[in-house]
Amino acid sequence: MSDDVQPGAARTAILRAVRAARPAPVARPDVGAAVRRFAERRDGAPDDSALLAQFVAAARAGGSAVVEGTRADVPRLVAAAVPVARRVVSQVAGVVGLVPMPDMPHGLADAELFVCEAVFGVAENGAVWLPLSRLGERAAVFIAAHVAVVLDRRAIVSDMHAAYVRTDVAAEPFGAFFAGPSKTADIEQSLVVGAHGPKEFTVVLVGDG
Predict the structure, then answer these.
(1) Could you tell me how far CA 25 lies from the centroid of its own chain?
(2) pLDDT tens-digit profile of 118-147?
(3) CA–CA separation, 111 and 87 (whole Å)
(4) Cα gap 141→143, rounded to integer Å
């Protein structure tokens, strides 16, 4: 840089040129209406048993464990799925949590198992939708080493288009799709499980009975 160039002058000139080259603003499209129209045009939606089978296969492919039973079976199924857990945080009736939901997320640091209930599952990718109202504390599902999610087998939608229609982000301040344990290969392409979330993820499918 020559001595007669002011520091930051090049940056300022580049940003000014970028701003001058911006296209004219346009209104955002109504994505929700477009998705609903797409969903309405879909033909041959699979029946419930096909959705359930597709969900189970996709969830297991993503690393989730899937167990099935009735509502009354949930405490036994959760205990069998994660038998080593002693420090349990539970948002599901019937599953006793030994650790109360803390006021601050730091209180979840030692949680071994977090149990909650999903609103619905997605057959195409095995994900479950977990809004804040089901979590109690948004950090709980990310901090606990093991997560068990109770899902009604009738609450499964076909794909993310249907999931988008089903979610109401205006009513829920926070929510997340979870598809199995945390997985990343950002460093040297070596798969690491549990770096940003649970090491184990169990879906407890329940039905009448």
Answers:
(1) 33
(2) 999 999 999 999 999 999 888 999 999 999
(3) 5
(4) 6
Asked if 140 and 176 touch (Cβ cutoff 8 Å), the reply is: no
Q: For CA atoms 149, 64, 85, 209, give the dihedral sign.
A: positive
Check residue 39 and give its pLDDT.
61
CA-CA distance, 182 to 130, in Å (whole number)? 15
Calpha distance 35→39 (Å, rounded)? 6
Q: How far is CA 49 from CA 41, 44, 197, in A?
A: 22, 14, 30
Global model pTM greater than 0.90: no
**Rounded distance, CA 23 to CA 46, Å?**
43
d(CA 168, CA 189): 36
Beta strands 88-90 and 146-152, pairing class: unpaired
Q: How far apart are CA 180 and CA 71, in angstroms?
A: 22
Q: Write the single-letter amino acid at 110.
A: D
DSSP-assigned letter for residue 83: T
Measured CA to CA, the distance from residue 114 to residue 133 in angstroms comes to 15
